[in-house]
Amino acid sequence: MTDPRTTVVVITHNRRPELLRTLGHLARLPEKPRVIVTDNGSTDGTAEAVARHHPGMRLLRPGRNLGAVGRNLAVREVRTPYVAFCDDDSWWSPGSLAGAADLLDRHPALGTVTARIIVEPDGTEDPIVRELRDSPLPRPSWLPGPALGSFLAAATVLRTDAFRTAGGFHPRLWLGGEEELLAADLAADGWWLTYAEALTVHHQASTARDPTLRRRHGIRNTLWFTWLRRPAGPALRRTLNLARTVPRDTVSLLAFAEAAAALPWVLRERRVLPHEVESRLRLLEPSQRGSTARRYTG
């Protein structure tokens, strides 16, 4: 069942055991995808382990931690029409990459396909799946699943050319809800995003993470996206709502301060979304108030 349509891109930083587990799963996929690993400056022997255990996989070593931009670096080398992102603690189920490619083949206006996420080792469904399945956005009749306003990088297959045209992940956002800005830019370019129930990604969260830093970046990135792309009224409302709802602690204060300090470049790069895309974002706002995705911000 070898399928040459999709390349898998993995970014990693100091998670050698988790990465090797993920690469083992990817190596056993019947689709036999090409895999590109960006080692974001690991100091735990990650790169050497990948070269030793998976010599057929492409290994990029930028020498520093690029965050999500490590994906951009890898996509430069992608020659397939589709690219699947994967974190070092997640992996695709057999057949799911081919299934996503089939959907993208059949629907030329479809830009991204996001899979169902199963949390390991318990095999339970990630709570965010319900939000994807029950998305309130209206959709065209041809769309094969619920329309989404954003996507989760570790569970999504994208059209490679669409990713490149939209500019990939913004270099300033690093990690933490970095998908929201790219998703909006894809929609502004005319692409639709969907959830596909029949496709599966497994996620066994690494214990080697800093949730405090992730939350700080999540709040900051939410603010930056809001100021970069939303009209003045909605941007102000979302900013005030975020200020009211995030935990009142040092992490939130630092996030707001860092976001505010960046206003000069944010205003230089500000580009308001088309009306139809902004309308979809407004429809999502009520459901986002209690969203599981607020693990990035709340």
From TrEMBL:
It holds the Pfam family Glycos_transf_2. GO terms for molecular function: glycosyltransferase activity. Keywords: Glycosyltransferase, Transferase. Pathway: Cell wall biogenesis; cell wall polysaccharide biosynthesis. InterPro entries: Glyco_trans_2-like (IPR001173), Nucleotide-diphossugar_trans (IPR029044). Signal peptide: none annotated. Gene3D superfamilies: Spore Coat Polysaccharide Biosynthesis Protein SpsA, Chain A. Residues 7-131 form the Glycosyltransferase 2-like domain. Belongs to the glycosyltransferase 2 family. This is Glycosyl transferase.
